[in-house]
Amino acid sequence: MTDKNKQDPRLPDETFEPYEEPRRIPMPVYWIAIALAIWGVVMLVQMSYSTKIGDKERASMSDQEVAATTPVKAEPKPDAGKALFADNCASCHGDAGEGVADAIPPLHASDVVKAGGASAITHIVMRGIGGPLIVDKANYDGEMPSFASVLDDKDIASIANFVASDLNGLKSTVTPAQVAEIRTASADLNPWDGGSGLAGLINGLPAQPASETAPAPSPDAAATAALAMHGTNEIWSCASCHGDKGEGTQTIPRLAGLAPAYLAKQLHDFKEGTRINDSMDYVVKSLSDKQIIELANYYGAMSSPSGARPSLEGDLARGEKIALEGDWTKNVPACFTCHGPSGIGVGDKFPGLAAQQPAYIAHQLAMWQGGSRHNSPLGLMAGIGKSLSDADRRAVADYLASLPPAAANAKLALAVSATTKETSNGQ
Amino acid sequence: MANKHPSDIPPPGPDNAERGQTALRAIYAISGGLALVVLGSLVVDFGWAPSWLTGQKSAPVAQVKGEKTDLFTPPDERTIPNDDFGASVRRGMAIFNQTGTNAHEFVGNDLSCSNCHLDAGRQAYSAPMWAAYPVYPKYRGKNKMVNTMEDRIHGCFTYSMNAQGSPSGGPPPYGSDVYRDLQAYFFWMSKGLPIGVQPEGAGFGKIDKPAKDPSRERGAEVFAANCAVCHGDDGMGQTDANGKQIFPPLWGPHSFNWGAGMHKVSSAAAFIQHNMPLSQPGKLSVQDAWDVAAFIDSKPRPKDPRQTDGISLQEADKKWHKSSADFYGETVDGVVLGTGYPKDAGASQSN
Q1: Are A185 and A109 in the same domain?
Q2: What stretches of A128-211 show up as alpha helix (H) in DSSP?
Q3: Given an 8 Å threshold on Cβ–Cβ distance, is B277 in contact with A380?
Q4: Does A171 lie in the same domain as A96?
Q5: Nearest CA in chain A to B244
Q6: How far is A283 from chain B (nearest CA, A)?
Q7: Which residue has better confidence, B179 or A186?
Q8: Residue B253 pLDDT level (bands cut at 50, 70, 90)
Q9: Is A117 part of a structural domain of the chain?
Q10: Where is the Cytochrome c domain (chain A) (predicted)?
C-alpha cells in the first residue's frame, strides 16, 4: 500500500491483489456462519431428544418383557399346561383342541389320545407325525412337526398331561423324567409314519390306513448332497454357511423344509439380479438350472431341528400378536394369514417362517422396508416391511424363532425335468 | 477487428480485479449453495417438506390414520371375560374363524365367516360385526321382512356358507347354540356403540360407478395380475400341507352360492376395492375392482337355494336376480351359469 500508491493513479495498478483492499467481511458470510451455528444447535438438541426417546422405548420394552415373562417363571400354576397348550398347540388344533375339519385331527375327546394316553402324546410331540391317520373315523393326511427342539421336558409333560386329563378325561400322566427318557429314545428318529406308524406304540389303536410309500430318491441324490455339503472346486458349499442341517445362523437363513419352488425361485432371482446378496450372487453363477432344482428339492425334503432361538430381545407377546392377528391399524395382516398356521408355509409363494433365524427375519424385513429386497409377489412384503417398526421386526422375528420347524413336505418336490421358466416366472 | 489499437486492449489491472471478483463470487455461490443445502436438509428432517419433493408418502399415511381414528375400535380379544358369558363369546369367535369345523353340520363349502369379514369380523369396510349388531332387527328387501340378527345369520349360512351342501342339508335350526354364541360374540364386540345408528365403516363401504361397463375380459387380466398369487389361477384358493384352507375359493363347488351377497358385482367390487389385495387396500382402481368383480361373478358356483324344484332358472333369474346386474342365467364360455352342481359333486363338474 505504500509504493504502489505513488504510481500515477490514472494508470491501472499492475500488481493488484484482491486481498489488498481493506474490505468488510461481506454480509452473506455472516449469514452463513449464523445459519451453520443454528443448524448445529438444532441438531444437538434433536440428537439428545431422540436419545431420550430411545432410552424410554428401551426402558418400556424391558418392562414389558419382565411383565410378560415373570408370571410364567415365578409360579408354575396348575393351569400351566393349559397356557402351554394355548401357546404351542392351539394355533393348529384349536383353542379347545377341536382340530380343523379335514385338516387337523382333534385332541379333544379323541379316540387315538384315549387309547394312547399321556405317554403316546409325548412320543408324538417329541418326534412329530406325518402321513395318513384316522382319528374319530375321519381321515387326515398332514404333517405335524417335532417339538423336541423348542420345548423342554417339563413343558412337554405339562402339555401331555393337560391333553390327557383336561381334554380327554384320562388319568394317565407323564413326569418330566419319563419325558426325558422318551426324548433320549427318540433322538434322531424321523417323525412317526402316520397312523400305521403308531401301531406299535398304542395298544388298542383304532384301525389306521396304510402308510404312503416314500418317494424313491432321485438318481442324482448323492451328487446333490455332495454339492450341498462339499461344494465344488470353484464354489464353496451350501453347508459352509447354512449349516450341515440347513438350519442357518444369524442372518443366514434356515433352508431345511422350505418349499422347493420357493428356494428355486430365490436362486433364480439371485442369478438374475432381482434379489441381491454378494455371497449368493457369486455362488449361483456356477449353478446350472438342473442343479438349482436338485438343491431346492434337497433342502425342501430336509427335516432338521430348529437352530433358532429368540435372540433379539424382541417382545414375544407383541410378536405373537403380529403373527397371529396382525396389526390392522397399520394394514399389517397376521403373518399366518398367508404363511400358514404356525408359519408352516403355504404353496410355493409363501415360505415357511417357523424356526427361521431371527436375525435373518429382522434383516429381511428391514430390507423390504428399505427397498433393497423387492422380489415378493405384488410387493406385498414391501408394504408390510414399511409398516413395521424396528421393535416390531425384532418382536416378530423372535416369536417365529420360538416355533418348531415345519415338517418337510415331500409333495412339493419339483420335477427335475421341469423347465426353468416355470420356476423363474412364478412370483 | 484485426488491427486493434493498443488502447483497446483492456489494461491488466482491472482484469486482475475482475478475477478477484470472480473468486469472491465463487466463494459466495458455494457457501450460498451450502447454506441452501443445510436449510433444505433441516426442512426435510423436520418433515416440513411437501411429499412431492421427498417422495415419501407422509401425507396419505396421516390421512389414513386420521380416518381410522374416527372408526370404532372393537375391544381386544384378551378382554373377553373368563366367565360363562365369555365362554360363549369364545365359542362364537371360534365358529366365526373356523366355521367349517365349529359349525360343521351346517357348512356346505370351504369358507369361514372371517374370509369376507376380515380380522375375525373386526375390520372396517369388510362388513365388521360391530357395525352390524347395533342396527338389527331391521327390514331387508332381500326377504321382505324384519330380520333379527338370528334371521340374518340364518341367511349367511343359507347362501354364503352354502348350507344346502352341508352334512345336515340346511342352516342351523332357529334357536341353535350356533346363533347364541355368534350373537354373544357380536354383542361383546359392539360394546359402547349406540343402538340404531349405523357406524362409519359398516358394510363394504361405498364405491363409485365405473367409467366403463364392467368387463369380465379386463377383469381376467386384473385377476391374473393381482389375485391369482393367493387365490390361484383357477380361483380355488390354496390349502396348506395339512389340507387346511388358507386362501378361500372364489368360485366353484366349494365357494359361496348364487344367493350370497358377495355374488352381486357391486358388493364384490366394493369389498375388493377396500380390502384387496390383503394389506394393500385401494391398490386397485375403481374400474379394476368392478372388472375383476364381474370376472369372478362370471364363473360357476353352487346354485341359488331359493330355486327349488319346480322353479326354472329363468323364473329364478327374473324373481331374484333382475335387480342386480349379475351373470346368473347367462351363458358364459358355453356354460349356463346358475345351474349349480349335483349334490356332493366334485370340482370336475362343469358349472
Answers
A1: yes
A2: 153-161, 176-186, 194-197
A3: yes
A4: yes
A5: A103
A6: 29
A7: B179
A8: very high
A9: yes
A10: 76-167, 219-303, 314-404
CATH of the domain at A269: 1.10.760.10
CB-CB neighbors (< 8 A) of B37 in chain A: none
Mean pLDDT of B262-275: 92
pLDDT at A420: 44
Q: Containing domain of residue A100, as a range?
A: 81-197
The tens digit of pLDDT for each residue in A360-385 reads 999 999 988 888 888 888 888 988 88
Distance in Å, alpha carbon of B35 to nearest chain A alpha carbon = 6
SS3 A143: strand
Of B241, B245, B279, the CB nearest to A380: B279
Domain ranges of chain B: 79-189, 216-336
Do A268 and A187 sit in the same domain of this protein? no
| Substitution target from B48, B161, B279 for chain A, most A beta carbons within 10 A | B279
A7 interfaces chain B, CB cutoff of 8 Å = no
Task: State the nearest Cα–Cα gap between A258 and chain B, in angstroms.
Answer: 12
Any B CB within 8 A of A100 CB: yes
**Yes or no: domain B79-189 corresponds to CATH 3.10.20.600:** no
Chain-chain contact of A18 with B24 (C-beta, under 8 angstroms)? yes
Q: Are A323 and A403 in contact (CB under 8 A)?
A: no
The verdict on residue A265 lying in a domain is: yes
Using a CB-CB distance cutoff of 8 angstroms, which residues of chain B are in contact with residue A42?
Answer: 42
The verdict on A416 and A297 lying in the same domain is yes
Taking the Cβ of residue A164 and every Cβ of chain B, the question of whether any pair is shorter than 8 Å is answered with no
The C-alpha of A157 sits at a distance from chain B's nearest C-alpha, in angstroms, of 25
Residues A88 and A184 in one domain: yes
3-state secondary structure of A425: helix
Please report, for residues A365, B103, B117, B302, B326, the alpha-carbon distance to residue B208 in angstroms, rounded to integers and kept in the order given.
Answer: 35, 36, 21, 29, 17
pLDDT confidence tier of residue B84, bands split at 50, 70 and 90: very high
Cβ separation B279–A332 shorter than 8 A: yes
The total number of structural domains that make up chain A: 2
Assess whether pLDDT exceeds 60 at residue A253. yes
A41, part of any domain: no
Phi/psi of residue A53, each to 5°? -60, -45
A346 in contact with B, Cβ within 8 Å: yes
Q: Searching chain A, which residue's CA lies closest to the CA of residue B245?
A: A103
A409 and B246: CB-CB below 8 Å?
Answer: no
> How many cross-chain Cβ pairs, A to B, lie less than 8 Å apart?
144
> Mean pLDDT over residues A258-281, rounded?
89
Which among A13, A29, A143 has CB closest to B31?
A29
User: B216-336: same fold as B79-189?
Assistant: yes
With vertex at residue B255, the alpha carbon angle to CA B253 and CA B260, rounded to the nearest 5 degrees, is 120
Residue with cell 381414528: B69
Q: Clarify whether residues A235 and A164 are in a common domain.
A: no
Q: Distance between CA A317 and CA A391 in Å, rounded?
A: 12
Same domain, A175 and A238: no
**Which residues in chain B have their CB less than 8 angstroms from residue A140's CB?**
242-243
Contact A413, A300 (CB under 8 A): yes
| Model confidence at B69: pLDDT above 60 | no
DSSP string, A70-120: HHHHH---TTHHHHHHHHHTHHHH-TTS--BTTTB---TT-HHHHHHHHHH
This prediction has a pTM of: 0.76
| C-alpha cell of residue B271 | 369389498
Cα separation of B227 and B249, whole Å? 11
Q: Do A337 and B278 touch (CB under 8 A)?
A: yes
Is this complex scored with an ipTM above 0.85?
no
B216-336 belongs to which homologous superfamily? Answer: Cytochrome c-like domain (1.10.760.10)
Same domain, A118 and A242: no
Residue A262 falls inside a structural domain: yes
